[in-house]
Design goal:
Blueprint (H helix, E strand, L loop, with lengths): L5 E5 L6 H14 L4 E5 H8 L7 H20 L3 E5 L5 H10 L3 E7 L2 H9 L11 H7 L20 E4 L5 H17 L1
Parallel strand pairs: 1-3, 1-4, 2-3, 4-5
Helix pairs in contact: 1-7, 2-3, 3-4
Length: 183
Amino acid sequence: MFSGWCVWVTGLPGSGKSTVTKALLEKLRKREVHAQVVSSDMLRKVVTPKPTYSEEERNMVYGAVVFVAKLLTENGVNVIIDATANLRKYRNHARTEMPRFMEAYLRCPLSVCIQRETGRKEYAYAPKDIYRKAFTGESVSVPGVSVPYEEPLQPEVTVDSDKLDPDQCAQSILETLIKLFLY
């Protein structure tokens, strides 16, 4: 029934999830392995066009992320989820829904994430200036500052994205994918 696999790339905002996901996707393409990216920021634009980032909204968005990923994997599509998912329950839900699931944790100090977000030129679907908004009180829902970010307890792979470049992070994730699902 499940022929596709899913890897959830998680970490604090600014840890490099989207950049590493793009690098991983390119590495997979070079191996002729197709994968679909499911981004919480992209999905949020459709599901909640004026996001509040409340816990109720997060439950809905991450529930939708898992639902879409499960449907894709059931139909043979490999999935890379690019999403903070600040609470373990979101990622654990995905783990229970998809038997071929792995978690890739981009560990990065908050200070580095803040520096990256402050200097970010491109935002794509990500919210802008989240750390500035958290520290000025304009936002009360920023993971790692005003709401918790629960680090994974037993991710299949952990990479220190402050010490490795995006290509090296993606390579570590790919090596774990190869061990678990590709050979």
